Amino acid sequence: MLACRGLLLTCLLLTTTVQSQRSCTDLLPLDLLARALPPQGQTPPTQVGHRFGASSMWSQMNFKDVTLDDNRWHTVVLAITGPYASLTIDCGLTLGLQQVQSFPSSLSTRGSRVYIGTRRRWRGRFTVIQTCSHWSFCVKGLMRQLVLLPGSDATPRLCPTSDPSLAELSVPNVLKSTPLQPDQEGPIYPYGKERLDYVEDYLDLYTSSETFDVEIFSIPSEGLFMAAANRDSRPGSGIYKWTEGSFQLYQNISTQEARAWKHFTIDEKVKKRSWFWSSLLRDSQIFLVVANSREAEPELSVIYRWNWRRQRFLRHQTLETHSAVDWEAFSIHNHSFLVVANHRRARDSNHNIHSVIYKWNPNTKLFEVNQTLSTSGAYDWEFFTVGPYHFLVVANTFDGHTTAVSSTIYVWLDGCFQTFQNIQTVGATDWETFHIDGRFFLAVANSQKVSSRGPSLYSINSTVYELNALTQTFIRFQDILTHSAVDWEFFTVGDEKFLVVANSHDGSSYSLNSVVYRWQGYEGFVPVHSLPTFGCRDWEHFSTDKGSFLIYSSATSRLSKVFKLRTY
Ligand SMILES: *[C@@H]1O[C@H](CO)[C@@H](O)[C@H](O)[C@H]1NC(C)=O
Ligand SMILES: *[C@@H]1O[C@H](CO)[C@@H](O)[C@H](O)[C@H]1NC(C)=O
Ligand SMILES: *[C@@H]1O[C@H](CO)[C@@H](O)[C@H](O)[C@H]1NC(C)=O
Ligand SMILES: *[C@@H]1O[C@H](CO)[C@@H](O)[C@H](O)[C@H]1NC(C)=O
Predict the structure, then answer these.
(1) Would you say the CB of residue 251 lies under 6 angstroms from ligand 1?
(2) Are 471 and 396 part of one and the same domain?
(3) Cα separation of 379 and 396, whole Å?
(4) Is residue 235 within 6 Å of ligand 1 at its C-beta?
(5) 8 A C-beta contact, residue 324 and residue 229
(6) Among 458, 460, 461, which is best to mutate for testing ligand 4, by the most ligand atoms less than 8 A from CB?
(7) Ligand 1 atom closest to Cα of 251?
(8) Does one domain contain both 494 and 390?
């Protein structure tokens, strides 16, 4: 379908790009295919060429000395404009050819057929022949991806670097935007946008104890801050300030086995009076709430408020929680809410308890209980909005017997949250919500499958779900193998979208790679980078004037690491 649409555009615009590509990181399909390929030297030479013409007059041209037959993947870009054709392999030197006959300025595509991947000619290899009415081109070899692009030459877009392994495999945006003008003057050149090149070690940050969560936020006219949820009560958790390209400890806050921090603001109308006037001003109050997980009565979590005069966070309110592991803050119709993930009650070690939604009372300036929701070992809450609807989703980890429990999505109706959909999860620890090109997604981190006999399984699938507008439900979009996944973080660099997963354990080790996946359209999320982590618990993306960064915190070590996202 895509090819056909591309083909149509191609024919109208008289330009073709063929791309088949090797990506150094997505190894699995490459290895599988490698086994299916005949060994080197036993195959006919690869031909790259194209031919076209009216039914009576064919013109055929071949690029000579093209070596593609080496059992590796290659990026092949073929561009045709007027009498010119160019071929670029692996983003190297471009070979040019001029032909006697110009590519026709208009072609009928009615009744055209497209063949991709016939195996007729050579056993064990695919011959790819692509036909557009009287015009065709062929690339012989095994083709992994074919992209047709309008424009006179897509080489600069596909080959921004001379290292072909960095070239990208994706659905070009140009294919998604229609209609294209067939009589558009001149070639369509892509414009440069920032893109992720590689990820670089930037900073080692030693916190006072193991860190279960980092929360990045900014305070207007103060700067960028990070709250680290640390295990030990003394000196407790650390608030860090980004100073000269690094996080410096700014404030110690005593916490009880802190598991998470959440930052939020509440806009208040405050009356300001002076001797001759009185007016209402909008004032932004900055809060931080900590999830304390220590199972000792009374179990309390604390809300802190930023004091502008003293330039630090001061205690504002305490709330009874039960082994709290997460807070989510949100607002609906200008009412501010907080919801806590109560994981387990200390008194009876029960996981099937209530998690509580609190609502801000502007008169008392305190949070008050608004609704309770029954959860099973709740681990994470996420709030999201789709169109006019507000949702909350909980990650239920464990019901006391099994981790195969359902996690629930709630929708806000008639002044309270009501069940919208239950999704079967396996030790769910995190939900991440994001949208791409008008499509809405939810990703769950599944951490552990407990088995009545034998050890637990940690290498299990985590799943990305997509909201289906027709059925009005979330439907499985992609399974991704993870190793006791405990966090997903979605981020963008330029136009590109990424997900990074916190892989924390595989059953024997905590020293595992966390993986960065790039959104590649119909291929979904494809692994592009592996980052060595130790007991990885949380990933956060943030940007400063020094660029774009990722930070991860460790639940088994004092070392948190900052990585810099290098772009080109
Ligand atoms: C935080 O606590 C540590 C350890 O007690 C201490 O060395 C440090 O000076 C404190 N930092 C601040 C900013 O209070
Ligand atoms: C929320 O507050 C903003 C700013 O005070 C105001 O413009 C807006 O109308 C309010 N919305 C609702 C739904 O009350
Ligand atoms: C919870 O908050 C909503 C929105 O303000 C309100 O309509 C509802 O009455 C509240 N429920 C309770 C039990 O306070
Ligand atoms: C993960 O999902 C894929 C695709 O749905 C499936 O083929 C595979 O068996 C699953 N793996 C595990 C470990 O569940």
Answers:
(1) yes
(2) yes
(3) 6
(4) yes
(5) no
(6) 461
(7) 13
(8) yes
121 is in which domain, residue-wise?
8-177
- Co-location of 84 and 217 in the same domain: no
The verdict on the CB of residue 249 being under 6 Å from ligand 1 is: yes
Sheet with 335-342: list strands edge to edge: 324-332, 335-342, 352-361, 366-376
397: CATH: 2.130.10.10
Taking CA atoms, 16 is separated from 5, 94, 164, 564, in Å, by: 13, 15, 20, 36
Ligand 3 in reach of 335 Cβ (< 6 A):
yes
Which of 142, 177, 212 represents a domain boundary (last residue)?
Answer: 177
CA-based Rg of the chain, rounded to a whole angstrom?
Answer: 28
Residues 314 and 323: beta-carbon distance below 8 Å: no
Choosing from 332, 357, 366, 416 the residue with most ligand 3 atoms within 8 A of its CB, the one to mutate for a pocket test is 416
User: Tens of pLDDT along the chain (568 residues)?
Assistant: 222 222 222 222 222 233 333 222 211 222 222 232 233 333 333 334 444 444 434 455 566 666 666 666 666 667 666 666 677 776 666 677 666 666 666 655 555 554 444 444 444 444 343 433 334 444 555 555 566 665 555 655 555 444 444 344 444 444 444 443 433 443 333 346 788 999 999 999 999 999 999 999 999 999 999 999 999 998 999 999 999 999 999 999 999 999 999 999 999 877 767 666 666 677 889 999 999 999 888 999 999 999 999 999 999 999 999 999 999 999 999 999 999 999 999 999 999 999 999 999 999 999 999 999 999 999 999 999 999 999 999 999 999 999 999 999 999 999 999 999 999 999 999 999 999 999 999 999 999 998 778 888 999 999 999 999 899 999 999 999 999 999 999 999 999 999 999 999 999 999 999 999 999 998 999 999 999 999 999 999 999 998 999 999 999 999 999 999 999 8
pTM: predicted TM-score of the whole model, two decimal places = 0.70
* Cα–ligand 4 centroid distance for 464 (angstroms): 13
287 shares its domain with 166:
no
For ligand 2, atom 1: residue with the closest CA? 334
* Contact in structure between 292 and 212 (CB atoms under 8 Å): no
> Going by CA atoms, what residue is nearest to atom 4 of ligand 3?
415
Number of domains observed in the structure of the chain: 2
Q: For ligand 1, atom 1, which residue shows the shortest CA distance?
A: 252
